[in-house]
TrEMBL record:
Residues 5-268 form the 5'-3' exonuclease domain. It comes from the Bacteria. The keyword Nucleotidyltransferase applies. Residues 301-474 form the 3'-5' exonuclease domain. This is DNA polymerase I. The keyword DNA damage applies. It comes from Companilactobacillus suantsaicola. Keywords: DNA damage, DNA repair, DNA replication, DNA-binding, DNA-directed DNA polymerase, Exonuclease, Hydrolase, Nuclease, Nucleotidyltransferase, Transferase. Single-chain monomer with multiple functions.
Length: 884
DNA sequence: GTGCTCACG
DNA sequence: ACGTACGTGAGCACC
């Protein structure tokens, strides 16, 4: 009857579930005035707005599951038996979601004894008979069996705002099956998450193969007798009943006793008034903003009156006892060189701003900035300190750095953007990109009032969110991580960056010439061998030469062609002389472009490189270093290591001094796992890798350990820290997967505490949604609940690794802060210049080296108290090269 | 802008 | 059966 009618069907339970876990990391931020969590509600509504806009349905229905028992549990009482309980924080939101849907003019429905799937199947079927187009939105793939020419099934991917569309063509492309055959596939393979069995040893691959041959479960069993004798045939025969039962369980009912007519589903559109009240009750600012209704002006950020930051204003500021928020706005991402564009100071009531930096020469303002009794809030202390330093100002008295707090609360808030943080709290402040534009359009607004108003908005947001964020920090037991580690560290890092490390450019120039000659030599040889000239740096062109012209065997492929990575080339070394040449070329070319040439671009007129440490980026709590990255200067191969000869102390008669923690991650593991054998090894200061080798190879003494055994044990220790898999270990040390699995088993037998830690931490992550370090640094792991095997496994390995890597990061951060204090206290001239995850690099007068050799290890090994000792090794020399 | 490769811990 | 080591940044080719 109607070509242009369109029905939108949503699986309420599965989408709510996904919405909940997609925003699980912000669970505590989304709480309304009544203490009810609203994260799933928020994400669900966000998705709904996008879907309604895209689909423009005329009819809508959201189906929910009615209860625990269904006709399926009657057929098979373990159906969905082992499924985790729905979290309480989600349970309380389900009625709210239904309420909101009502206000949005969308019908909701549930039916005793039936799942949402069956309601959707039935209504989709009805609508199809009526010639309507149907779109189904769901969080899980079970519904894809419903796809037809008229019915499209869209499955949420990555959260809920993106979907993957399943049409019959798409199913064919992905699986090589028709949608209906998905039921047969599930019958054969079963479903782990719904907890019903299929045929033993039959997974997706086998199921698809069988169905391509025989069409359906019925078809398979008609021909099962004709199959060749095989394990598969045996399993099929043994599990015939299971296959048919599972197929039934997997089949969505298209004729459930649903008491709805299509006309009941007509989309009504929003009830503005009720929806408005509802959003207000839920504190949904973003949605209120979109509703285009007048708002409470007290909360409105749109216009803030900014007064001039002049001498009169400064007088008021310095006289005041109030806390002030300070915005020093840089433009560009390198605050060591890019310009400052604006300055704003506010006590929350008055906002004083200027774009004229002569004001920073004002002595009263200078004194106020450096006065530690004058309390200040800001966003990004390190950047602010660095910017002000360039104008001869010191900064002190900062107690709230919103950047650091946001990152500690959730390591995913690592975009260094105040607008993005504000959005997490439902406050509509433009992001840097939204305000300044991006790409070629990126620019400071011509009208300075526009800019100052933006800065005022930032200041206001900082005031508005400070209490809430600090309270969250306390709830998470992270206040001392912030007060005692991250905030003091930001000052230490600022000092290190500002100080910079001296580089001898002539030394780099000299290397550049040497390597250039070497490169062109190898280049010519490669061309000769290959019989043609080509770009060796192009993996594509290189692939053609190696695998087509020279016909070398293809070991690995990438998405786009042949892989030419080191591990592939290593295996092809003896097949053709050109392979070794390419390896040599690659090595030198990397050193040349990234380091010899690359680093020179960063040397400033003071002959120094000033890197930027990102303190709020990594998921584990480590630092990272950019522009340039000084944490990956070559050391493993000698040609590369030469680069370090260009890094020198800033004065004659000074030296570079370095100190690193020995096996800090394994010591952390020994501590947090409490494993007796591993702790003993460290307490007795044994060679840990040899000791591990002795244990896993069942030897009586470390004297029997061969170098190869030690090497393998070392790799296993690393693997353990990374959240081991037999495959990963086998690849790394070139043994079979079986052998690797045996190593791991033996390892866990010898170190049962480690095994227990691995099991417990994954369980902890599942129950709490996050893991934490010894200093309570948190990392949320929503993927721990993923249905996807790979995604879930990755999250599990992360759960194992993060507390280890993160605690090691905590430890060195404490050591850096203590070290800086100690240098000051002892009035040493030595400067802390660099940090490379487990080591600190200093420059110091030669005369101070003996002092440092005692002092630095003692500060580092006493940074925290673990159940095993920390061990520190030091070295020094004229250049960084010699300090190792 | 994305993918590949490779430098570090 | 699935396809894997953990955490980063930068240069180059190619679209």
């Amino acid at each position: 009857m109607s070509k242009n009618k369109k029905l939108l069907l949503i699986d309420g339970n599965s989408v709510s579930f996904r919405a909940f876990f997609a925003m699980h990391n912000v669970l505590d931020k989304f709480v309304n005035g009544d203490g009810i969590h609203t994260n799933a509600l928020y994400a669900f509504n966000n998705m709904l707005e996008i879907i309604l806009k895209d689909e423009k349905p005329t009819h809508t229905l959201v189906a929910f599951d009615a209860g625990k028992t269904t006709f399926r549990t009657k057929m098979f009482d373990e159906y969905k038996g082992t499924r985790d309980k729905t979290p309480q924080e989600l349970m309380e939101q389900l009625p709210l979601i239904q309420e909101m849907l009502n206000y949005r003019g969308i019908k909701t429905y549930q039916l005793p004894d039936y799942e949402a799937d069956d309601i959707i199947g039935t209504m989709a079927h009805k609508a199809q008979l009526d010639d309507m187009d149907v779109t189904i939105i769901t969080g899980d793939r079970d519904l894809t069996q419903l796809a037809t020419d008229k019915i499209t099934v869209k499955v949420n991917v990555k959260g809920v705002t993106e979907t993957e569309s399943y049409t019959p063509e798409h199913v064919k492309e992905k699986l090589g099956l028709t949608p209906k055959q998905i039921i047969d596939m599930k019958g054969l393979m079963g479903d782990a998450s719904d907890h019903y069995p299929g045929v033993e040893k039959v997974g997706e691959k086998t199921a698809i193969k069988l169905l391509n041959q025989y069409g359906s479960v019925e078809g398979i069993y008609e021909h099962v007798d004709e199959m060749k004798k095989s394990k598969l045939k045996e399993h099929l025969i043994n599990d015939k009943d299971k296959a048919f039962l599972s197929k039934k369980l997997a089949t969505i009912d298209l004729d459930a006793p649903v008491s709805l007519n299509l006309s009941d589903l007509e989309y009504q559109g929003d009830n503005q008034e009720q929806l408005l009240q509802f959003y207000q009750k839920m504190n949904f600012r973003t949605f209120l903003d979109r509703m285009d209704v007048p708002q409470d002006s007290a909360e409105d950020l749109k216009e803030i009156k900014v007064q001039a930051l002049d001498e009169a204003a400064i007088e008021k500021i310095v006289q005041s006892d109030k806390v002030h928020t300070l915005i020093v706005e840089g433009f560009g991402n390198n605050y060591h060189i890019d310009p400052i564009v604006g300055l704003l100071i506010s006590d929350g009531t008055d906002f004083y701003g200027t774009v004229d930096f002569a004001i920073l020469e004002n002595e009263k303002l200078k004194a106020w900035l450096s006065d530690s009794t004058k309390e200040k809030y800001l966003f990004d202390n390190k950047a602010t300190v660095a910017l002000l330093h360039r104008y001869g100002c010191d900064l002190s008295g900062v107690t709230f750095d919103m950047l650091l707090v946001a990152y500690l609360l959730d390591t995913n808030d690592n975009k260094q953007d105040i607008g993005l943080v504000a959005k997490n709290y439902n406050i509509n402040l433009p992001s840097e990109e939204e305000f300044y534009g991006k790409g070629v359009k990126k620019a400071v607004p011509e009208d300075e009032n526009v800019l100052l108003n933006f800065l005022a908005q930032k200041a206001k947001v900082i005031f508005d969110l400070k209490d809430k964020m600090m309270a969250e920090l306390k709830d998470n037991d992270q206040d001392s991580l912030y007060d005692e580690i991250e905030l003091p560290l930001s000052n230490v890092l600022a000092e290190m960056e500002i100080k910079g490390i001296t580089v001898e450019v002539p030394k780099l120039k000299e290397m550049e010439n040497t390597f250039a000659t070497k490169l062109s030599e190898i280049e010519q040889k490669i061309y000769q061998e290959a019989g043609k000239e080509f770009n060796i740096n192009s993996p594509k062109q290189l692939g053609v030469v190696l695998f087509e012209d020279l016909k070398l065997p293809v070991i690995k492929k990438t998405k786009t062609g042949y892989s030419t990575s080191v591990d592939v080339l290593e295996k092809l070394k003896d097949k053709s002389p050109v392979v070794q040449m390419v390896l040599d070329y690659r090595q030198i070319s990397k050193i040349q472009s990234t380091y010899v040439v690359g680093l020179q671009k960063f040397v400033q007129p003071d002959n120094k490189i000033h890197t930027i440490y990102l303190q709020t980026l990594t998921q584990t709590g480590r630092l990272s270093s950019i522009e340039p990255n000084l944490q990956n200067i070559p050391i493993r191969i000698d040609e590369g290591k030469q680069i370090r000869k260009a890094f020198v102390p800033q004065h004659k008669d000074w030296e570079i001094f370095s100190a690193d923690y020995s096996q800090v991650e394994l010591r952390v593991l020994a501590h947090i796992s409490g494993d007796e054998h591993m702790q003993e090894a460290f307490n007795e200061d044994y060679d840990i890798h040899a000791h591990t080798a002795m244990r896993i190879f069942g030897l009586d003494s470390t004297d029997e350990v061969t170098p190869n055994m030690r090497r393998q044990a070392k790799a296993t220790n690393f693997g353990i820290v990374y959240g081991i898999s037999d495959y990963g270990l086998s690849q790394n040390i070139g043994i079979s997967r079986k052998q690797a699995a045996a190593f791991i088993e033996s390892y866990f037998e010898q170190y049962p505490g480690v095994k227990k830690y691995m099991d417990d931490i994954v369980k902890y992550a599942r129950e709490n949604g996050y893991v934490e370090t010894i200093m309570h640094r948190r990392r949320y792991l929503p993927d721990i609940h993923s249905k996807n095997f790979n995604v879930r496994n990755f999250a599990q390995r992360t759960a194992m690794n993060t507390p280890i890597q993160g605690s090691a990061a905590d430890i060195i951060k404490v050591a850096m802060i203590n070290m800086q204090k100690m240098l000051e206290k002892e009035k040493l001239q030595a400067n802390l210049l660099l940090q490379v995850h487990d080591e600190m690099i200093f420059e110091a007068p030669k005369s101070e080296i003996p002092t440092l050799e005692k002092l630095v290890p003692s500060v580092m090994d006493s940074a925290v108290r673990l159940d095993v000792p920390l061990k520190v090794e030091t070295a020094h020399g004229k250049t960084w090269y010699e300090a190792k």
